[in-house]
Specification:
Length: 66
């Protein structure tokens, strides 16, 4: 059985693709990304500290002073 549609009625909505990211949304995205980058940087610094071989507390204190 063949069906033939003779007329179609539809509503089509369009948006401006530039308007999808408002300033507020973009600010939230950037803030989230910066927080993640800072957290990763801090974690990397902790990993470096954990891997560093020293001669004990004296080396640690001298490193802070110098």
């Amino acid at each position: 059985m063949d069906v033939h549609i003779q007329e179609v009625v539809a509503t089509v909505r369009t948006v401006n693709s530039d308007a999808l990211l408002t300033q507020r949304t973009l600010t939230k995205i950037v803030g989230t990304v910066l927080s993640a980058v800072r957290a990763e940087h801090a974690a990397e610094q902790r990993r470096k500290t954990d891997r560093r071989v020293t001669n004990g507390a004296r080396d640690e204190q001298e490193g802070e002073a110098g």
